[in-house]
Amino acid sequence: MSQLASPAHPILLLALLLALPVCGAGPAAAHAIVVTSEPTAGATLAAAPAQVSIRFNSRLDHERSRLLLIGADNAQTALAIAAEGDPVVLAAPLPPGLAPGAWRLRWQVLAIDGHITRGDIPFTLKAP
Hints:
The protein is mainly beta. The protein has a single domain, classed as Immunoglobulin-like.
């Protein structure tokens, strides 16, 4: 009996065919990743910026994305994301009068490929 007639070959072939869709998932299945942010992660600022922005490597669904400002006391403030503008950028004005200390921007985005990603961008405001 030759090896090609062996019953193990159809099973091996079936396993390879089933694995192809998984192996073929490339950049189209990638999540939105932060490319740059203002402020940058870990930045120490003399004053709070008027606006924060985060640029991603993928187009976003702005209506289903979220941006929170979290203080050292873990109090959270939802930021109003600007609807117009660059489709790969989340931007929002900051509330005036932020106190010196540790802050975090917590983001959650829905990329147009359907994947949700989230993360934090910490920054510090120095006392005057």
